[in-house]
Amino acid sequence: MNSYLREELKFQNDLPYEILTGAWNYDARSSYPSVADRLASAMSQNPYLRVLVLSGLRDLACPVDGVRYSVDHMQLDPAFRKNITCADYESGHMMYVNLPDLIKLQSDLVRFLQP
């Protein structure tokens, strides 16, 4: 996408990449972007906030082990951990393009959204 924007469309913009509302230097190699602290803060402020984490086992953009590590190491009161539900899929980042995962996704979402 960057190549298409810069080379073909001649569009250049060096604004920082932002995650939620915080700036992130996309070229930084010493760290990785994470919203775990903000998520833990939101969950601590709202005891009714529930989170569904969907992970593709073949996801190279958000590797499942990295996501699990972030969730497992959030500074979160143990009482709020019950509000986190995780679901894994055989495909990658876009699990909905694989029909068996799409069916599982629908089932997981229905189960998650039920009171």
Quaternary state of this entry equals: single chain
Helix content: 25-40%
CATH top level assignment of the domain at 35-113: Alpha Beta
Shape: globular
**Residue runs with pLDDT of under 50 for 5 or more positions:** none
What is the β-strand count?
4
CATH topology of the domain at 35-113: Rossmann fold
Report the end-to-end length measured between terminal Cα atoms. 40 Å
The number of helical elements comes to: 4
- Cross-sheet strand order for the largest sheet: 1-2
What is the gyration radius calculated from CA atoms?
17 Å
Return the string of H and E elements.
HEEHEHEH
Strand content range: 15-25%
**Biggest sheet layout:** 2 strands, antiparallel
Mean pLDDT: 86
Structural category is: alpha+beta
So, CATH architecture of the domain at 35-113? 3-Layer(aba) Sandwich
Could you please describe the fold and organization of this structure?
36% of the residues lie in helices and 16% in strands. The chain has 115 residues and is an alpha+beta fold. It has a domain at 35-113: Rossmann fold, CATH 3.40.50. It has a two-stranded antiparallel ribbon. Strands 3-4 form a two-stranded parallel ribbon. A hairpin with a 2-residue loop joins strand 1 (17-19) and strand 2 (22-24). The chain is globular and about 50 Å long. The model has no long low-confidence stretch (mean pLDDT 86).
Draw up the topology in text:
Layout: H1 2-8, E1 17-19, E2 22-24, H2 36-45, E3 51-56, H3 64-72, E4 84-89, H4 99-113
Parallel strand pairs: 3-4
Antiparallel strand pairs: 1-2
